Amino acid sequence: MKIRARLLGTGGSFGIPGIGCDCPVCLSTHKKNKRLRTSAFIEAGGKKILIDASPDIRQVALLYKMDKIDQVLLSHFHEDHIGGLNDLRPFFMKNDKPIPLYLSEETLREISSRFGYLLDRFEIKLLEDETGSIDGFRYFTYSQGPTCVTGFRFGDFAYLTDIKVYPEAIFHELKGVKILVLGAIHEEGTGMHFSFPEAIEFGKRSKSPRIIFTHLAHEVDHEQGSAMLPSGFELGYDGMVFDV
Ligand SMILES: [Zn+2]
Ligand SMILES: [Zn+2]
C-alpha cells in the first residue's frame, strides 16, 4: 500500500509561538519553529484520512486546500486533538453520507458530552479492543496519565502521539514499520509525554529506520534539537510530507 503522510501540526497543546511567550523559540522567525497543534493527513488506499481534529484544523485545511475527508481517526479526547471537530462541518456538506469516525469508547464518551450535536454527521466506528484491524489500518492502545490513547498503523507507516506508558506488545505491532511518527515533548519530558531520551529508547526498540518526533514544546529549537538527535531520528515540522 502506497502512503503519503503530511504532518499538519507538530506542536504541543499551546502551539508555538505560545501566547505571551518571549522565549527564543517563540520569538524565532525560523519557519520550522512555528508549530500548530498536532494532527496529520494521510492518503492511503485511495482514501483521505485525518488523524485528530486539532483546534488549528480550519487553518491547515485552508493552507493545504483540503477538499475532502473520507475518514477521521481520533487518538484521544484531549482538547488539542479534538477541539477542531466543529470546524469539520464544511466537509459534512460535501459528503453525501456521514464520515466514518474511528475512536475508543473512552474518547466517544467525552466527545458525546461536548460534541453530541455533531455525532449524527459521523458514522461511529468504535475501536473496541486494545489492538485490532479495521477498514485498512491497525490500531493499538497505550496511555498518558489516566488517559487511554490510540496509535495507528497504515502499511509500513505508524503514528503514535501523546505516549508515555505502553505495553511491551506494542513492539510486535510496530514490526517492519519504515516511518514512525512519535510523540516527544522536549528533552526532559513530563508525566504525560516522552522525553527525548525516552522517545529515542522507544524508537530504537521499534527498529524503525526513520523516526520523526511530533507534539514538540517551545523548549525545542528545530535546528539545535535536530543536531542533537542520533541518526535515524528527526524532528518533525509543520507541513512535512513523506511517502512510505
Ligand atoms: Zn515560548
Ligand atoms: Zn496532545
What this model shows, in words?
- The chain is an alpha/beta fold.
- It has one domain (3-236): Ribonuclease Z/Hydroxyacylglutathione hydrolase-like (Metallo-beta-lactamase, Chain A).
- Helices cover 22% and strands 29% of the residues.
- It contains 8 helices and 14 strands.
- The strands form 2 sheets. It has a 7-stranded mixed β-sheet with strand order 6-5-4-3-2-1-14. It has a 7-stranded mixed β-sheet with strand order 7-8-9-10-11-12-13.
- The chain is globular, with a radius of gyration of 17 Å.
- It starts with a strand and ends with a strand.
- The model has no long low-confidence stretch (mean pLDDT 97).
- The structure holds zinc ion (2 copies).
Summarize the entry for a quick read:
This protein has 244 residues and is of the alpha/beta class.
